[in-house]
Design brief:
The protein is of the alpha+beta class. It contains 4 helices and 5 strands, in the order αβββββααα. The chain has helices at 3-12, 50-59, 75-82, 85-88, and strands at 18-19, 25-31, 34-39, 42-43, 48-49. Strands 1, 2, 3, 4 and 5 form a 5-stranded antiparallel beta sheet that branches. A hairpin with a 2-residue loop joins β2 and β3. It starts with a helix and ends in a 7-residue tail after the last helix.
Amino acid sequence: MCIEIIWKRLIKFEGEIFYTVRCYPFSYRIENNILIPIRNDKEINRKIPKSDIEKALSYWPIPGPGVISSEIQGSSYVYGLLSDNRILGSKNGKN
């Protein structure tokens, strides 16, 4: 999947609720091609650049965030976003 398509979807759903693999709710905001996770109305101390999302996509599909945790910041949030149908689309490739 092309990072530009994914990034447009991330912008579209900015502020909506997503879930980590452990079911922690979070949202995010995007500023200057940086995704900033938000939990409990507070920004998480993670700044996830667009390039990290692209790097995670190069591994996709993966069984969990541990696969990418040494490669990118905020792997649990990135995994939560990319495993959500709003971002990557449905499993059969239809959006």
